């Protein structure tokens, strides 16, 4: 996978690139655990062991919707080697849990609401015994007709005590009577994607002498998970501890709480350590997926192509339980018009329960689905007006100071026009040669059935936006402690390293602030103060901000005695390359000498400015910050077979400030590649609510062979003044934008509407050539 320098504007004349520092902010510092992970020695939850270990297995429902008539655990309990069997009757505390809305039981008791819902769990002295015992639990079901169409959920009998409607957001902005000279409409469908983590869920529960339990998990939000576990176990939170183990990849909330909770129950019941390693099938059935979405749009524009009004209806399929569907709907409705100036907007959004697998937080939730739809609408407008698609977009893009349809003013940097111009002006890739040695360039690969004469090239554009941190009044706060002793710094912060690079960033912050080269980041557990979930770039902002504040407090402790000795303020001293110097050169010493014999430490919090919930008309200052991205996609389409090859994706993104160039490029490339999967291959099929082919054979992830050339043609470093370091989230917005850009390019190549993701072959076939 290739990548251009982050500041390059064209291939012919790259802008000069400043020399990178060797440490601190701006350096391409490698991950501290990179070597262990590449050598296979990094400890994940699946590698854990304890004396007297038992193994767990979970019995899951084979039905999407059923009434439980009876559960008989007699045969399972009597099997040799079985130590415990637990069902809903063994849950001593609050029976409901859930990431956003606590509405799901630990075990189904009366009604099964989705395929794979936990019914019982077993602990035994061997993993095979545990699996056989789980299969020996006899459950009598009365199978019910599942509700799998979200449009039918409005009229269906309630599937849950809380009803089928999770949230409705009506957004009203401007004049409802406004109309444009040109109108285009569209109906769009987005499929169900799975996070498909590299490693399936695994964990270890160890009972404590005080009657509590310790859970060793790859949790991305350990304090929330601890509180949920304590409530379900009937324990106070101080008697449940979560220790975060190595996270084998996370593009969402990593751990399924329905997986964690039976584990601790078994440990408490048996008094022994219990380990559970999910199969790939269980992983697909257990954790949350991206919301399948139905979108109806109508765009109004004047004769010059400037948007007058956008009308839309957005329906999210939340599956059986609410999870974070309310948050996803807020993002979808708020960003339904995209990074464009829209004076009049009328959006209706709903999230409903069905008997499909639960949906929840997946990178770019809500924003990805609407991006695919509003960018398709922009392509339709351009075609109807006879305008270049990029030019039409340029006439409508947002800028700092513009107002979103929710009524919030964009106060952060919003260089959308600059991003779009950068990808539009970047040189296009060369056309493939019609020679035998270049056959691998054809869609379908080297052994594909395609013919060069049937291949058409298309160029398309996508503009995307996401919010950073939580929204609608979420209290985003993180706490960090920085300690320095014997020239070695230690950072304590409960921000989980999920692959986003927080531990590397924390080291760079301390290096930059204190001039200490050796920095260690302590392992995460719930004995530390909360830092919140590892999503939406929040750890770069709030946890990185907390580390910076704590480091600056330690810096003041270090410099104060020196400043007092020389009769100057600490502001007149600077730390550079491990040396402390004064503005006038009178003072010059090393950090090591100043630190000698001292142990310094400080604890600090970071909390961004508050936000507010959307009101009854969908209005409010709901978001802390926004990030934007522009992508130009180049695709080759075999219009006879409908196969698509993504040739190149040119990316321009506003990042606020580049904190680690190599890490930032890797995050953008990974997000873009994930977007390729969403656009072309990833679709978890659930006929009648049953997950079909829950494995990595049936669920087609893009491989290295599917990854296109990714050209990062421009990174706009216009710092967000309210963010620590001025940096913005970088991972989610290319995921949001890439599928829309690829669909736009396929439309350009084929002339077909392409109104569904992932793009099916029949949608790219041209019959009237």
Automatic annotation (TrEMBL):
Residues 1-19 have a biased composition (Low complexity). Residues 1-29 are annotated as: Disordered. Transmembrane segments: none annotated. One of its GO terms (molecular function) is oxidoreductase activity. InterPro entries: Ald_Oxase/Xan_DH_a/b, Ald_Oxase/Xan_DH_a/b_sf, Ald_Oxase/xanthine_DH-like, AldOxase/xan_DH_MoCoBD1, AldOxase/xan_DH_MoCoBD2, AldOxase/xan_DH_Mopterin-bd_sf. This is Molybdopterin-dependent oxidoreductase. Residues 39-145 form the Aldehyde oxidase/xanthine dehydrogenase a/b hammerhead domain. It comes from the Bacteria.
